[in-house]
């Protein structure tokens, strides 16, 4: 994943029952790929979660509960629960 410029936003929100977070960086790079990094704090299994989506339709999530999800944009997906 190649990152573009980041906005360094400090907006709060909630993610699927995982509690509040701060967006530490997000943006779209020159290839049209979007990324977003979120800080869920010290109580989360993965406090620095992120996701990205690519212009080819693929995307990847590293969730605050420690699980990951990847879709290759061709209909194939892989979910890995927290270790």
Description:
The protein is mostly beta strands. It has no helices and seven strands. The chain has a seven-stranded antiparallel sheet, with no helix packed on it. A hairpin with a 5-residue loop joins strand 6 (68-71) and strand 7. Mean pLDDT is 79; it is low at 1-18. Residues 1-33, 45-71 have a biased composition (Low complexity). Residues 74-83 have a biased composition (Polar residues). Residues 1-83 are annotated as: Disordered.
Short key terms for the protein model shown above:
mainly beta; 83 residues; 7 strands; disordered N terminus
Secondary structure topology:
Elements: E1 12-14, E2 20-28, E3 34-39, E4 48-53, E5 59-62, E6 68-71, E7 77-80
Antiparallel strand pairs: 1-2, 2-3, 3-4, 4-5, 5-6, 6-7
Biased composition (Low complexity): 1-33, 45-71
Region (Disordered): 1-83
Biased composition (Polar residues): 74-83
């Amino acid at each position: 994943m190649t990152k573009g410029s980041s906005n360094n936003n400090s907006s709060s929100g909630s993610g699927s029952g995982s509690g509040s977070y701060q967006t530490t960086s997000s943006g779209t790079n020159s290839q049209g790929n979007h990324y977003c990094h979120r800080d869920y704090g010290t109580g989360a299994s993965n406090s620095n979660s992120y996701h990205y989506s690519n212009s080819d339709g693929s995307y990847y999530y590293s969730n605050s509960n420690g699980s990951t999800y990847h879709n290759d944009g061709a209909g194939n997906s892989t979910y890995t629960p927290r270790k």
